[in-house]
Model the fold of this input.
Amino acid sequence: MKKLFLAVLLLTLSACAFAQQDYVGRYDVFAGYSYLGSPKINLTQRGFNTQLGYNVRRWLALGFDYSNQDGRGTLVPNELKTAYYNDVEGLIQAGIYGVPTPFGVPPSIPANYSAYVPFSARTQTFTGGPQLAWHHFKKVTLFVHPSIGAIHEHINLEPHDAFTTFVAGPSGALVLAGVLHSTHPSDTTYFYGVGGGADYNLTKHFHLRADAEFVHVFLFSGLLADSRNSVRLSFGPTFNFGKNVSR
Done:
């Protein structure tokens, strides 16, 4: 996806002609493929992104953005807040040496055991706001916009062995499940960042869009030690229609 995105941008920029666009429709509708990556928790997601825009001026649009992605990641103790990290580390030591804990005796594990819990995630984003556009080139429209909105994420923890089942499962230590209330936790919060990209104008009303956003996310702040950075890449067709915006 990243290579395709870069190829589209290079094609777009190389095709620029130094004549302004004659037509800028009042309305824009975009729908396409979307990639969302959060390297800190090894989370990679794919889905779709749609955008609706109203061109107030040739250089200014107001719009709404929605995306929905599914994927998989990995949760490790180092990513937890200190209290929960200490709980998990204590259980690891108890599992290695067979020591009882207030949660019970953890399953026996080797001394070099590395704890992690895979999970699946569905993430939705909701954004509204302004976008600045540059129509100087006949074949290309460049744009930039703030990325500030709401994000909702639903996670399904998937313990993969006896120890992680003990830690995350309802019959065990509840170190994770107790914080998140279940093994199917959800969270809704805000994010902020910046985005931008380009439309390659195939015809008067039909374009190909490549869009990139870099955002900072605060999901699961009660459990995770730090917030995370994410990047979203989107690619697909855009339809421009309505009365020509002359200025």
